[in-house]
Batch of 3 targets.
Target 1
Amino acid sequence: MLWEKQYQLLAQVLADKGIDIERVKDKLKKQVIELPSWAVGNSGTRYGTFREEGAAITVWDRIDDCAEIQRVVGICPVMATHVLWDVTEDGKYEPVREYAAEKGLRIGTVHPNTFMGQQFKFGSICNPFADVRRSTIEHFKDCVRIARELGSKTLGVWLADGTNYPGQDKLRERKHRLFAGLKELYDAMDADMTLLLEYKPFEPAFYTTDVMDWGMSYLMCTKMGDRAKVLVDLGHHLLGVNVEQIIAVLLDEGKMGGFHFNNHKYADDDLMVGSIDPYGLFLIFDQIIEAEEDNVDVDIVYMLDQSHNIEPSIEGIIQSVMNVQKAYARALLVDRRKLQEARQNGDVILANRTLMEAFEIDVNPLLNQVRVEMGIEPDPLLNYRRSGYAEKIARERKNKGANTLGG
Ligand code: PSV
Ligand code: MN
Ligand code: MN
């Protein structure tokens, strides 16, 4: 195979640079990305949803699909869940955990849902009405119990709270309510659980959003304690924001907790990660690896959070996982000695070129080799296409009803 020869050549080039390819492969094999259960069902925009014949309808379908994705990619043995969606019809969670385990998956980050009920018109824990705040906190506490039942140690909180008009509510008071609510959740968690707090600049609220940026998330997490960290959803930034710098700051402060990977061009587009800006994704991983090399304690939960509106969901997810792997692999191949030397000499051009050189490496042969060593086929997408799984679920699920989840 051509890629095998290319791999041999790459191994030689890296050896000359003093980069240990075995170490790189080992890191790539240990990478773990949580699959979002909600991404395999039908999803869409507020204008409508295009149905996919084989889209997952039940929680069992979602587990089956995640297991199929894991079969071909090998680095996603974990399914992230939304509590309202990933439950049996009679409200049980243990069977979900058991079925996932049967399929070789464990349940990862548990996401409370405080945005889909009528009561949330004015927010959840920031709501001006105490009864809504109270019932949201009850839901939070319930999520701790659910996480226990699912065997999960991570809660991922995104709040849709905000206001639409100036004057609508007192902003400082909303901040107080926000902290009070989060703190109750934090205190209700087990000692080995982590709370990840996601931020988003706007939508569904359009004037103010209570957790609007990393600064607010960082502030809340710092006030809560060590087991609260920031969750960075790549689509939740205004245009031009330097996300990799945010990552660097959070890593340095010990508050970088998790990612929701996706890509955007305009707002919270939820496109396949790496499809619009693969270089930006590489620069994020570069920060992570640089921190690791500097012995910073890096403990990050990686998740996808995407909405596959026009592409087949499972294929979109497979492609996304591969894009993340490529970015990670390239960042692992940065010639850090050369980079350091260029920096010490104030050689901006060479420093930048060193990063670009790693970004430009064709890492497909390396990733193919990693997969073969893991006992899976080198090309996950072709492997999936050849398997007949898409046709099977289309046959079995067709006409069984449409299930539409948010994205
Ligand atoms: C909000 O836009 C978000 O990114 C949050 O993570 C939600 O939990 C997710 O989308 C799914 O609706
Ligand atoms: Mn998200
Ligand atoms: Mn989002």
Target 2
Amino acid sequence: RYIDIDESGQPLLPELVLHYQPIMDLASQNITGFEALSRWQHPTKGFMNPGQFIAMAEETGLIIPLGWWILREACRQMRHWQKKFPDLTDITMSVNLASRQFTMPDLTSSIQLILEETKLSPRNLKLEITESTIMDTGEKVTKVLNKLRSLGIRLAIDDFGTGYSSLNYLYQFPINTLKIDRSFVSKMMIYPHHVPLNKGDDSTEIVRTIVDLAHNLGMDVTAEGVETTEQCNYLHEMGCEYGQGYYFSKPLSPDAATAILAEMS
Ligand code: G
Ligand code: G
Ligand code: MN
Ligand code: NA
């Protein structure tokens, strides 16, 4: 079996749950998708931050079975929502792929099995791979990305702007979306409300440059960490297509996300 979990489909860690953060179309203000984010409610230690336990799971190798469970659960949830709300044909589920998952030799066949098992169409799945994972993977990265795209899955580069992208590579990659890291979004000094003290304090031109770069390479853009109306409007004016952040919604429990979808349809 490709996933090391018991037959009931329960995760290795019963306290692991997925929450779902809406990703909004900045023009229509509709939900275009969700990002699945892992949450670990430890029975005695309380809430554990995914930044910590994902890094630990990467070190120990546990990320492999855990990552497959996360992917399958997110696909299952999206398929469930599509059955419940038949209008949701274009909505996408974004799932983070850890570096160790991305470099697995059976990556594409395992993903294909999960899609077949959950009956989710590949066009409704978007994999988020960080800029550093993509740039650190070496020669075979283009082949892996092309294979994933040929299945019909969509691809996003996560945390864009924090790593060191080679533009020579970037333009060859079959990427659909650049996700601008939230550190750049939060440091946009938007006139006339914020006047930067020093030139380096204002990331507005970095954000504009990333948006233009993405469009010139045929990619669309999602801004992370949108927290204010001003950021939302300004990003939309710059041509950024999608936004995600506390301004729209925090990551939601499955029930809370279901309630929002019910309201929409
Ligand atoms: O949800 P939160 O902002 O606390 O997440 C912190 C970090 O953990 C983010 O970088 C996010 O991408 C990562 N993360 C959350 N869930 C997952 C997951 O299911 N898989 C992987 N690989 N990373 C995740
Ligand atoms: O690295 P990644 O993009 O996967 O991280 C997503 C993380 O960002 C999640 O842990 C989520 O909780 C967090 N997040 C989502 N929206 C916001 C926001 O508006 N502000 C801040 N500070 N964090 C956010
Ligand atoms: Mn992400
Ligand atoms: Na990010």
Target 3
Amino acid sequence: VISKLPQTGTTIFTTMSALAAEVGAINLSQGFPDYESSPELIELVTKAMKDGYNQYAPMPGLMSLREQIAIKTEKLYGAVYNPDTEITVTAGATQAIFTAISALIHPNDEVIIFEPAYDCYAPAIKLMGGVVKSLELDPPNYRIAWDMVKRLINNKTRMIILNSPHNPTATILSKEDIDELSALVKHQDILILSDEVYEHLVYDGVQHHSMARYPELQQRSVIVASFGKTYHATGWKVGYCLAPAYLMQEFRKIHQFLVFSVNAPMQHAIAEYLKDENTYLGLPDFFQQKRDYFREGLKNSRFKILPCAGSYFQSVSYSAISDEKDSDLAIRLTKEFGVAAIPVSAFYRKATDNHVLRFCFAKRQETLDKAVERLIKV
Ligand code: PMP
Ligand code: GLN
């Protein structure tokens, strides 16, 4: 066959998790918790199955879940989304992202992404015949130079993809970024795809700037979220998409043929669990503690600890330790020291390698202790 994605291999997450398993390393590479989700939530899923909710959910998602998502979104961001026409439950954020890009990108449309970028954006754009325009951001602060973004915009620019809190750099968009973005798109026919899967993982008392907060951005935005992140259950693959009705109408045309609907018992359980805002309001404290604990431990290592304002990732620079390629060091770290990390070069389309590794700190304290014990030997 003629490959539709000739440059694309197997994802770095699959590769590093497999290597970690093979050599028995502590896996801080792929982002997922090594502790259980809440017993109450698991009980609710079991109950939903026993109660017979095992057949197709409605195509856009269970209404009770969409209603709870609408309540949560209004409470947190002041935005009113109509559950009937503006909220769709998806098989994780990944499906929401792919669906949004398929629904909205035409051949030759240009899409601006910021690199390092989460790995699922560019392949979807290319599959639709779109053109990826990337702007590389530099460590340690990875700030967006908005004047550079402006230079990338022309009459083919169809979409800008944003991700805050950001994977892998752990940066967040500031109010200044929002103002720059608003000014930039104001008189343009440009959509925003906003990947907000780490919306609750923002630290140091700072607020998350969801696109939903800003009406002029909200009306051109598709926002994606993930219950896998929020409820420590990445294997459930349940997320959702928020968009104004004119965009959601197109989104659902694809969604209905991609998955039709998402697993029913989890939706029943999450709809119930989401009623209690404490199930997500405590997340910043919960993860900030882990972040601080891990960073404190790393202070005894030779790695340079980069800033972490949000997400459950901590990046480090190893320029003072080695001049190896980051992918080589990630493999060596896994095999020789027993800790798996993600080489950040995997998030660039070019061969950019700033000698940065990413660790996931959504782990039990014992796991972080053991990992730090090994990392200080590097
Ligand atoms: N976007 C970002 C930035 C992510 O880190 C992830 C990964 N976990 C996803 C999307 C995909 O989320 P999900 O597991 O819900 O598909
Ligand atoms: N989002 C997770 C990460 O960045 C990985 C998810 C996946 O493996 N697709 O580690």
